Amino acid sequence: METNYTLLTEKEALWATMLMEVLRDNSIPCVSQPVYGAGFTMKTGIPERQKIYVPSDNLTAAEELLQSLFSESDTGEEDSPAI
Description:
Elements: E1 5-12, H1 13-25, E2 31-34, H2 38-44, E3 49-55, H3 59-69
C-alpha cells in the first residue's frame, strides 16, 4: 500500500527536529527533506531549513500539533515556539 505524504511546514533544522519528535511521540509518521543542502548552507552561512511531510491521512492531527507548538508573532517570525 502506497502512502501519500503532504507538506506540513518548513522550519529551521532545530525546530524541525523538535517538531518531528513531537509528531512521532503522537504516532504520526513524518519525513523531512533539506531545503538548501549542507554545501550551500556551509558556504553561505544560511541556517539549514527542513520541509516536514506527513501522511495525508494524518495532516489534520499534525496541523493541530504544529499550531500548539508554534505561533506566528506580530513580527512574522514563524519559527518561534509558543510561550
